[in-house]
């Protein structure tokens, strides 16, 4: 059951991430999705090299790694507490990897975005205290 859950969660996170990245680039360039993909060097490379497989494998491993660390941390405690901490840490690892993936793969390069929409290549809804690779 855990393996099935990890695979389903991995597919969901990968699909959400790829949709979020394309939506952000579409918003920042004020172009249709395919036009944004064709004119943006980083997004075109993202699609051309098909990083989906690597992203999927990483996302599949996030929850089990976090869960295992949580269980290890709670070694010798009650089973329910260990499972609860494992689940919380699994979700935390998934969230951290999701944010890191977005930060590395979403920032726009100069000339591929409208500065009025995305100042400095950062979407306006991206938290200013979180780093993002731009330029």
Automatic annotation (TrEMBL):
It comes from the Bacteria. This is PAP2 superfamily protein. The keyword Transmembrane applies. It comes from Kitasatospora paracochleata. The chain crosses the membrane at residues 56-74, 81-104. Keywords: Membrane, Transmembrane, Transmembrane helix.
């Amino acid at each position: 059951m855990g393996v099935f859950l990890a695979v389903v969660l991995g597919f969901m996170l990968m699909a959400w991430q790829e949709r979020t990245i394309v939506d952000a680039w579409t918003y920042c360039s004020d172009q249709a999705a395919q036009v944004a993909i064709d004119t943006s060097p980083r997004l075109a490379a993202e699609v051309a090299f098909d990083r989906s497989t690597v992203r999927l494998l990483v996302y599949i491993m996030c929850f089990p790694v976090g869960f295992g660390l949580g269980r290890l941390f709670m070694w010798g405690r009650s089973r329910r507490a260990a499972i609860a901490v494992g689940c919380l840490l699994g979700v935390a690892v998934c969230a951290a990897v999701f944010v890191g993936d977005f930060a590395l793969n979403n920032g726009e390069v100069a000339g591929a975005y409208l500065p009025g929409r995305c100042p400095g290549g950062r979407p306006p809804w991206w938290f200013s205290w979180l780093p993002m690779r731009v330029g």
